[in-house]
Amino acid sequence: MDVSIREKKQSEQIVTLIVSGEVDAFTAPQLREKLMPLCQKMREVHLNLSQVDYMDSTALGVLIGAYKQLRSRKGRLVLTGMTPRLKRLFRITGLTEVIDIEEDGA
After folding, report:
1. Is the domain covering 3-84 a CATH 3.10.450.710 domain?
2. 77 forms bridges with which residues in the sheet?
3. Is residue 9 predicted with pLDDT exceeding 70?
4. Contact, 63 vs 96, CB < 8 A?
């Protein structure tokens, strides 16, 4: 399956990426291509993951890289709309303690 990534600018310094499909070793590079430039110029990046069916360790690596890039610039990565399956993945890996996760999927 493919991944689809749409960008929705919230303000001059806040952007939301709406991700859908599967984010795995094959599609994670597409997410990285879209996400990393935003992490270099935006103060806050929100990822709406409500339409993500599957995510593997490669995708987690992309998110950790984005988190580190934003944090180094005093920015913030926020994940929203996580399914119970994704929440479990983040809880098991300990990422719920590091990355901001909001219940709202907007």
Report:
1. no
2. 45
3. yes
4. no
